[in-house]
């Protein structure tokens, strides 16, 4: 009975750690800081926390995980990552307008959210996480994840950069086979998962599938984004790196 009580107390304490204190909604954050999605930066916000929770579930078990989130914007997906139990969330945001809202979230999350005001295309991730999480390449993946609702303008050059780093086991992949859960516009997603003989088959398909197991989790309706993207329905892809 004593051990059952101890287990219940431990579970309750963990839940208390994960649960965030009351915060303004993402919509209120956008109004509070007068945030608008910039078309030239191909920004589209996800405001529905049920959808961001669903995206995070596709990343797998994030309990005590280290996470790099790319382009958090107003922080909807970030909240879902924190709620999923991540111990350390590094958000990399190029647009300084979003920093004050992310700082609010970081304070509410008791410092579990670290903020880097930087361009992910030139940002070095290898020094941002502790060495002790490193796994051998042939071992299970490290408890380290890349998650992001990628701005469509950077999604292709960014995935190419990461595929190159996977092949050389450098950057964030020096820790092992870091998993990626990312949104792509439909055209890029179709190229990433295209099978031999498909019209969408390209060098990107071959590179991605040679290095990773690429799975399309689900399509995200355009109406879920604010503003609705000009491109066709985005897709969420999970990339699990091969040994």
UniProtKB/TrEMBL annotation:
It holds the Pfam family RrnaAD. S-adenosyl-L-methionine binds at residues 44, 46, 71, 93, 119, 149. The keyword Cytoplasm does not apply. One of its GO terms (cellular component) is mitochondrial matrix. The keyword Mitochondrion applies. Its EC number is 2.1.1.-. This is rRNA adenine N(6)-methyltransferase. It comes from Danionella cerebrum.
